[in-house]
Amino acid sequence: MRLFGTAGIRGPINSKVTPELALNVGKALGTYIDHGTVVVGRDARTSSVMLESAVVSGLLSTGVDVVRIGLVPTPMLAWATNKLGDAGVMITASHNPPSDNGIKVFNERGIEFFLEQEEELEKIIFSKSYKTVSWDKIGSVKELDLREQYIKDILDYVNHETKLKVLLDMGNGAGSLITPYLLREMRAKVVTLNSHPDGHFPGRKSEPRYENIAYLSDLVRELGFDLAIAQDGDADRIAVFDEKGNYVEEDTLIALFARLYAREHGGGNIVVSINTSFRIDKVVEEEGGKVYRVPLGQLHDGIKKYNAIFASEPWKFIHPKFGLWIDSFVTIGLLIKIIDQEGKPLSEIVKDIPKYYMIKKNVKCPDEIKYQVVEKVKEQLQELLKDQIEEVITISGIRLNLKDGSWVLVRPSGTEPKIRVVVEGTTEKRREELFNLAYNLVTKLVSEFSSGSKSS
């Protein structure tokens, strides 16, 4: 049994995620780093103070010192850990429902713990082999408010002032404490929605999916904003609407930033997750760069392996020159800078990004057979498309890049009993053709394996 998923520990409060678990994570982390300082932050959820207090208690019991930075977005916790800590802990369930919470652990560079580091923590927890210290060696606690310094560092990096009119939907999350202030320092005209932290998320669902924030489209257009930006509960993720109220697809935004960095560097390596569009490759190759794909949640490994100048998965962006963590605030600042420097509206800028047609759909599949199903899909899908295949990528399920620029991805979910099917076609007709082929194959194999497991 594993505690850590693809985004730390996450789940329902007081069943999967308990104060006892938080205490043990604190004790395990203190044991793992042995000595030093751990930076601890939390999001706005109703259970976050409870879990934060438990983590801090566990850390102190091992003799580790703690810097508490309070209610902050996850990117700020990563930044603060890089500046002040030997490790960091963020209490957050990101965009999950308000009844959930979670724990993310970061290393001294502000990078989320790698798989092998999480496994070490789990080993310590399951074996209960915690370090303990005597009464006179218990760690100390310092409380710091670092928001102004964080905003200043972003302003120094982005180095831009603007006259744009921006609509912000903070989703009652921790971004409320940073984003409006950052943009006002950049001289933007800012109007906010749902911009008071509230763990019940009364304004909207925390995840900034289109269906949860579609109302921004009319507001942008009718009230004359240059763009609208929405964030999730811990503000590591953003969604964007242009001045016409069009939702800017996540892969289009990745392509926009990838092109910016490739152009600035006269090429360079870009790392993206396995489920991203071929439009990114197109714009990067035009600037003399190269795109490498990695499994979801492993951008940091890719940055290190390929010496990347930029890395991203949908709605999550890493700007290595600023820091090796996902940082939506740097992304927002740079997006505004791009719009101003291009001298035209966002809708016109993204017209330069090639258009492809993507569809994503999940097939329910019991955890105990989903990996077997995907292995069979690998074999049969390659046979069905053998004359069309340009490249086969098997780092996370299977992705077949086809000769016409279309591609098919089938991968097991890392967090749910599902298999994810993603298809991108050069035309809508091609997308539908490939999707029907892949989706029907996965559905058939899930049914066959389910019947087999029941009969056995």
Relative helix content = 40-55%
CATH class of the largest domain: Alpha Beta
Q: What is the count of β-strands? A: 19
Based on Cα principal axes, name the global outline: globular
Any overview of this molecule?
This protein is of the alpha/beta class. The chain has four domains: 9-145, Alpha-D-Glucose-1,6-Bisphosphate, subunit A, domain 3 (Alpha-D-Glucose-1,6-Bisphosphate, Chain A, domain 3), CATH 3.40.120.10; 148-241, 3-Layer(aba) Sandwich (Alpha-D-Glucose-1,6-Bisphosphate, Chain A, domain 3), CATH 3.40.120.10; 250-352, 3-Layer(aba) Sandwich (Alpha-D-Glucose-1,6-Bisphosphate, Chain A, domain 3); 357-455, TATA-Binding Protein (2-Layer Sandwich). Helix content is 40%, strand content 23%. The protein has helices spanning 19-33, 48-61, 74-84, 115-127, 147-158, 179-185, 210-213, 215-223, 250-265, 278-286, 299-306, 328-342, 346-349, 367-384, 428-455; strands at residues 9-12, 37-42, 65-71, 87-91, 100-107, 141-143, 165-169, 189-193, 227-231, 238-241, 268-273, 289-294, 310-313, 316-318, 357-364, 389-393, 398-402, 407-412, 418-425. The strands form four sheets. Strands 1-5-4-2-3-6 form a six-stranded mixed beta sheet, sandwiched between helices. β7 (165-169), α6 (179-185) and β8 form a beta-alpha-beta unit. α1 packs across α4 (115-127) and α5 packs parallel to α12 (328-342). The mean pLDDT is 95.
